[in-house]
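Progress against Task 2.4 (sequence-to-structure conversion) is shown through the following example record, which the project officer requested during the mid-term review.
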Amino acid sequence: MKLWFGDNYGKRRIIADCNTPEEVSQAIDKFIAESNKKKPPGARPFKRYYTRVYEENGLVKYDVSSYTEFFYWEGSIDAYRNNSSNSSRSNKHCD
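Structure tokens generated for the chain above:
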């Protein structure tokens, strides 16, 4: 199932194929790490302080501490809700 990154211009691009919430979390961490490596010297790296998860327009939306950038997954919100091993940094907020 596709995982998209939605930037602050409202554009989305596919960044990974993920079958489980664990794979989504790993793909998001990898994307953030790679993005931070591309920043110019002295630029503040992005840090993921929390994760909120919502269902929006048939997709699972991941809010990872950014006001304007989000991740969207084709998977089921139920897969996230039923997963007992989600990261401790996630507050498991599901609407």
